[in-house]
Design goal:
Layout: E1 3-12, E2 33-38, E3 41-49, H1 50-53, H2 55-61, H3 65-83, E4 89-92, E5 98-99, H4 102-111, H5 113-123, E6 126-134, H6 151-184, E7 189-192, E8 205-212, H7 216-232, E9 236-243
Antiparallel strand pairs: 1-3, 1-4, 1-5, 2-3, 6-8, 6-9, 7-8
């Protein structure tokens, strides 16, 4: 059976990262293994069948969002396993990063040695956290309020309702900006992300923060405080993490 080499992540570690208890990974793939690239540097990879992950079959499968979600979860489970190993720093690779062979993959990564060194230096001792702020449901006036008795009163009430809605959105947006600024002070790096969901109402804030592990408790405490501020304006804030630092690996996210 023809296969390709699938790359999950790169790992910097003083000792070889054990794959003995790693999750199964992608459906149809061989068990993940860690191969040495250089001193303290390892690539985690597996073989995948081309009749499932080759260009033609993959292009067709990408139209099935449920399938892509399952693959993404399988990929993430392997990356998270290695990221959780003691003393390990991980560069997660983008979904469907594949090479024709393990030798080709190793050669490509060794060729990026200087870049990898810089990225690992930035990521060491850090973890990614995500923050999203969504608009809350607009408050509803009491149904007991008297209905406008004239056309003029009706139009005035409608204008007031629109003004109230705009004011609420502006207040929530300001709170989201405040949340971002406050949390950024505790992060080594931070960035706003752009929502890609077509037709969906974009969040007021979708951000990623690269947080030093030693700052985790302070970051979580600060997140609780700004979440209360956001809630008072009618917004809804969600904190997720810690994650492998997908949003902070730069050009290494590109599929080769």
């Amino acid at each position: 059976m023809a296969t390709a080499t699938y790359i999950y992540c790169l790992v910097q570690s003083a000792r070889k990262p054990s794959a003995a208890r790693a999750p199964g990974g992608l459906p149809g793939a061989t068990p993940a293994v860690a191969t040495s690239l250089a001193e303290r540097l390892w690539v985690v990879h597996a073989d995948v069948p081309l009749d499932h992950y080759g260009p033609g079959p993959l292009e067709a499968s990408l139209k099935d969002l449920d399938w892509v979600s399952r693959i993404a979860l399988a990929h993430e489970s392997v990356v998270e396993y290695f990221a959780a190993l003691p003393g390990a720093t991980v560069i997660p690779m983008k979904l469907f990063t594949m090479f024709s062979s393990a030798e080709r993959a190793a050669a490509e990564m060794r060729g990026r040695g200087r870049e990898l060194k810089r990225v690992f230096a930035r990521l060491q001792g850090c973890e990614e956290w995500g923050v999203r702020v969504l608009r809350g449901e607009p408050s509803k006036k009491s149904t007991a309020a008297a209905k406008p008795s004239t056309g003029t009163a009706f139009l005035t009430a409608r204008k007031q309702a629109r003004d109230d809605a705009r004011a609420a959105i502006a207040a929530a947006a300001t709170a989201a900006d405040t949340a971002y600024s406050s949390l950024a002070e505790l992060a080594a790096e931070h960035r706003r992300r752009t929502s890609e969901a077509p037709g969906a109402v974009p969040p007021l804030l979708d951000a990623a923060f690269l947080v030093p592990t030693r700052q985790r408790a302070r970051f979580q405490s600060a997140a609780k405080k700004v979440a209360k501020l956001v809630s008072r304006t009618g917004g809804q804030m969600t904190l997720t993490g810690p994650w492998p630092p997908y949003n902070f690996v730069g050009s290494l996210e590109e599929t080769t």
